[in-house]
Amino acid sequence: MLQDVVDYYSENKMSFDEPFRIRIHRALSWFKKAKDLNLKGELDLSFITMWIGFNSAYGRELSAAFKSEHVLISEFFEKILEQDTKKEISDILWQQSKNAVLSLIQNKFTFEKYWHFVNGNMDDSNWEDSLSKSIIKAKRLVAEKDTSVMLSMVLGRLYTLRNQLLHGGATFESMLNRPQIEDALQLMFEIFPVIVQLMMEAPDKEIWGKPYYMPIKE
User: Nearest 5°: CA angle at 25, between 19 and 29?
Assistant: First the structure.
């Protein structure tokens, strides 16, 4: 899938305006590196690198950075799902990566309220009940094929894992988080290239905005 997206970019990049071309070029450069790292068994670095590529895809000019990360990601995926007329994202959630999605949702170590409780926030002492309700909700979403809500749930789990790694909350190559890292990578390698493909099929700067830190030519 990734190579198909890279080939599409190579064939069409000169039809894109410069800001959009830079956005896609950056995202694909990180995705390709993430794939190399994954093949070498460097799962932690592959996950982090994949997330940088995702940031390259959805990140907008600094004026938008005052919004929370969750809001920016949510807005981005609303636009992606609007473009996804072939329901490719749905196919990934409900077919190709269904087991990884459900595993991430059921895993307490990707559930933010669990970590709040572990770190002493007694307001989240009912995290087990909250997790159980979340799992029941996810199973209902599978039956209803509610792509938007399920995508939001699983991105929340990925974001918790992202925070754990990027903020130094895990040991490099720790065996404790291998299951969730493996599930996350399976999903990310399926869904992120599709995101870039959908963006390239609708290269409208009004939709995607300008990327962070445009190159400065002096």
Answer: 150
